[in-house]
Structure formats: structure tokens, C-alpha cells
Amino acid sequence: MEYFYVDPVSAGGMDRGTVMDRSVHPPIVSKLVYQIDGWPGDVLIESFPCFLVTEEAKRALIKAGFSGATFADVEITISDNFRDVFSNVKLPPLVWLKVDGKAGRDDFGIASNLHLVMSERILDVLDELGLPLASFKPFDDREEHS
Amino acid sequence: MGGIKKLSQDLFGRNANLNASDYVVHHGIEQQVLEKYPGLFTEQEINSIENLRGIRGEFDTNLHQKVIKGEWSDFYRSHPIATRQQVIDKVTEIDKKYGRLFDPPIGE
């Protein structure tokens, strides 16, 4: 099985009300409030150290079956930028994708450099739905142990 | 008047040839720095005109959401703790790289 580093595009960032433990790195986020500032159209977005997927992507992932992540609720807020400049854009429903898998073992994992790693099988599922702005490069498991 | 319209007016009011509705407002020091590094900057500093940059709406996805926020994601990854100066230095670095694409341009 091939694995890839995936750098999703951002659509904003963490907003007031997010709760995280910053005594560890990456921080452990227990409540996520994500402020949308623009909408790139990708089905997977990020704000370090969190990832969000569209409901459509969630359904596709459940159908395909996957390891290394769970879903949780996220509170979405809208920035003034988005409200004033992109008011004609319809946002899809979003869910928090909590990645806790091992890079190069699970379908979703976090590498030692704190970047997201996905299996080719699951990357194909999301890419089919739309990841036009994400960056990919092959993941080499040996880098994790060097 | 509040929110982005007020910020836009502050930013673009000084530049009569720019139409605020064509632009998104980018915060040099990101607003989420308030969550990532609590206590490092105040909301007033984040929303001060010195911290605002205009980006044309059509550049928002590629320049703002992808490239600049990607730079900040890398910064957050590599800085579990940051000083004010490190954050300011990152803003300066981003302004140097992409400031010519802002309206009004920075660093030209």
C-alpha cells in the first residue's frame, strides 16, 4: 500500500471558544470552533492541528471503511470577510476529522514532522470528491525511523 | 459600522483608487494567533490598520487560503511556543515574499 503526505488547504482557522491543551505538541484540541474565512471547495481542510471534512466526504469514508480517525462535531463560525465578500457561496456541512492513526500504517496518520499522511486508497476516495488545492507527495516510512 | 467593512474602510479609505468590495482583508498576524498563542497579542493589535493587508477577492483561495495560511501552518507546526518577535518576523517574511501581490503593495 502506498502512502502520501497530504497538505490540505485552509478555509480559515480556529476561532474563540476552541479549547486546547498547549502543554503538549501538537496541542490536544478538545473543543473545536472553526471560523470559515473563504471557501476553496476542497472536501478536506485544515487548521493545524485539526482537520475538517464535508458531510459528503464523511459518508464516502464510512462507505469505504478506514482506520486512524474518528468524527466529532465542530462549531462553525463565519468571518466578516466571508460574510461581506463571499455571501453568495453556499457552505457544505462540515465535521471534525480527528486523526489519531499511525503514519504509514493506518489510512489516516500523523507523521513525526506533524504532517497528515493518508493511504492511497483513502486519498483516492477524497480526491474523487474534490481536493483541487491540496498538495501531495509520497510518504517514505523509512524517514520516520531515520 | 463594524467588522470587515470598518476594517476595509480603514484600509482602503486611504487609497481612493481601490474599491473595498473587490478585496478580502488579510491580517498580517493571523486572528487565530489569539487562540494559538494566548496572551501574545491583543485583539486591538490584530485589528490595527498596520496589521491589515488587502488581497483581491480572486486571489483569496490560492494566495490567502493556500499559500499564506500554508506558511502559517508550518510555523504553528514548528513553534509549540512562540515569542512576539518570532511572530512579527514571520509576518515580515510573508510580506517580503508576497507583499507585491497585496493592495496596496508592501515592500515595493
Could you write a compact summary of the structure shown?
Chain A is an alpha+beta fold. Chain A has helices spanning 55-64, 80-85, 120-130, 141-145; strands spanning 3-7, 12-14, 19-21, 28-31, 33-36, 44-47, 50-54, 69-72, 75-78, 94-99, 108-110, 116-119, 135-138.
Q: Helix count of chain A, per DSSP?
A: 4
Strand order of the largest sheet of chain B: 1-2
Provide the domain count of chain A: 1
Q: Helicity range of the residues of chain B? A: 40-55%
Major sheet of chain B? 2 strands, antiparallel
* Helix content bin of chain A: 10-25%
**Net shape of chain A:** globular
Number of domains of chain B: 1
User: Judging from the principal axes of the Cα atoms, what is the shape of chain B?
Assistant: globular
Mean pLDDT of chain B: 87
Beta fraction of the residues of chain B?
Answer: 5-15%
Oligomeric state of this protein: heterodimer
Q: What is the distance, rounded to the nearest whole angstrom, between the alpha carbons of the first and last residues of chain A?
A: 20 Å
Class derived from helix and strand content of chain B: mainly alpha
Uncertain parts of chain B: none
Describe this entry's structure for a reader.
The complex is a heterodimer of chains A (146) and B (108). With 146 residues, chain A is α+β, with helices and mostly antiparallel strands. Chain A has one domain (3-141). Helices cover 22% and strands 36% of the residues of chain A. Chain A has helices at residues 55-64, 80-85, 120-130, 141-145, and strands at residues 3-7, 12-14, 19-21, 28-31, 33-36, 44-47, 50-54, 69-72, 75-78, 94-99, 108-110, 116-119, 135-138. A 4-stranded antiparallel beta sheet of chain A has the order 11-12-1-13. In chain A, strands 6-7-10-8 form a 4-stranded antiparallel beta sheet. Chain A has a 3-stranded mixed beta sheet with strand order 2-5-9. The longest helix of chain A has 11 residues, at 120-130. Chain B has 108 residues and is mainly alpha-helical. Chain B has one domain. Chain B contains 5 helices and 2 strands; from the N terminus they run αβααβαα. Chain B has a two-stranded antiparallel ribbon. The longest helix of chain B is centred in the middle third of the chain and has 19 residues, at 60-78. The model of chain B has no long low-confidence stretch (mean pLDDT 87). The chains are: A alpha+beta (146), B mainly alpha (108).
